[in-house]
Specification:
8 helices; alpha+beta; 254 residues
């Protein structure tokens, strides 16, 4: 009986060192793996879980990245997206009010406050595409440049008459109104009204309108090379002459 109990007592003891040895090997393996992962210059193998997660983050980032350019003078649904983001009326025309609002948005978000929606600003806003910017921002209006200038040239010599709007005599805005009416474009009566009715451009083309002052007190039709057609004053009838100052703005008839 004593041998039997001794046998039962010894049986567990022969298994215990085996389990302890396995545990020690496992602990050593874990410790070795941890040391290898944290050793200088060592890189841990990516886990099966982290790789898809990283891919999802990358896809989400690339999906919202904006690579276009929206600025003053542009039109379209993308401009409306910008206007909604900066809190102005979404009329789809990137004018001075939108530009000022964009600058305020850029300042609040630590961006360069230049009033231009480029890649960084557009990405911050979460803009979706660049395909909806109107091509009219980069092309001439439907009014033929050559025909407008031809009409203006044919009217040189018409007398200046303050308040006039006909071939018998006109003032500066009466002249431009008459010329564009000949080509199916209706313009308001005064120089300032016409300035507000056109789209401001910074790289004028022949056939654009040139405005002096804001509010505009004089205007003409840009002829290119620093020249314009205009009805000057009682001493200067309708003529083609040099633009005498750089303090002008330009507007395009749409």
């Amino acid at each position: 009986m004593s041998m039997f109990y001794a046998g039962r007592h010894r049986a567990p003891s022969t298994k215990t060192p085996h389990r302890a040895g396995a545990s020690m090997v496992a602990v050593a393996a874990v410790s070795l793996g941890t040391a290898a992962a944290t050793a200088p210059g060592a890189s841990a193998a990516p886990s099966a879980v982290s790789a898809p997660a990283a891919a999802s983050v990358s896809s989400a980032t690339s999906a919202t990245t904006f690579s276009g350019l929206v600025k003053r003078g542009h039109r379209g649904s993308l401009v409306k997206q910008v206007q909604r983001k900066v809190g102005v009326s979404a009329d789809g025309i990137f004018g001075p009010m939108t530009q000022s609002a964009v600058k305020r948005y850029q300042k609040r978000n630590g961006l360069v406050a230049d009033g231009i929606v480029g890649p960084r600003t557009g990405t911050k806003m979460g803009l979706r595409s660049t395909s909806t910017v109107s091509s009219r921002t980069t092309t001439r209006s439907s009014v033929s440049t050559s025909s407008v200038l031809s009409t203006a040239a044919s009217l040189v010599g018409t007398p200046y008459v303050y308040g006039g709007t006909s071939r018998s005599g006109w003032d500066c805005s009466g002249f431009t109104q008459y010329v564009f009416a000949r080509h199916g474009k209706s313009l308001p009566r005064t120089a300032e009204q016409q300035r507000r009715a056109t789209t401001r451009v910074y790289s004028p083309q022949p056939g654009d309108l040139v405005f002096f002052g804001a509010p505009a007190w004089h205007m003409g039709i840009y002829a290119g090379n620093g020249m314009m057609y205009d009805a000057g004053n009682p001493r200067v009838d309708t003529t083609k002459r040099k633009i005498w100052t750089s303090n002008v703005t330009y507007g395009r008839v749409r």
